[in-house]
Design goal:
mainly alpha; single chain; 4 helices; 43% helix
Length: 87
């Protein structure tokens, strides 16, 4: 957690890469290979992360829409409980 130590994500599992990206704001953001929930977690945790809802499942899309005020609301494809959660 030392901000002066170099960041090397080589060899980390996707969940651990996401963990580092969410806890180290100086870590470059790379959502490649992350699961839907890990991508959503990084998007929510890092305001400097571009919002990309493509490929997220409906729960994770709703989660991002709720937690990122700058995220456009799109209820398309959301089930009733996720729609209600967003609204």
């Amino acid at each position: 957690n030392d901000p002066s130590s170099p960041i090397d994500l080589t060899g980390l599992d996707p969940i651990h890469r996401a963990m580092v990206m969410t806890h180290r704001p100086d870590c470059p953001i790379d959502l490649t290979g992350l699961s839907s929930s890990d991508r959503a977690w990084v998007i929510i945790s890092r305001p400097d992360c571009p919002i990309d809802l493509n490929g997220l499942d409906q729960f994770d899309r709703a989660w991002v829409m709720i937690h990122r005020r700058d995220c456009p609301i799109d209820l398309t494809g959301l089930g009733p409980s996720n729609r209600a959660w967003v609204m």
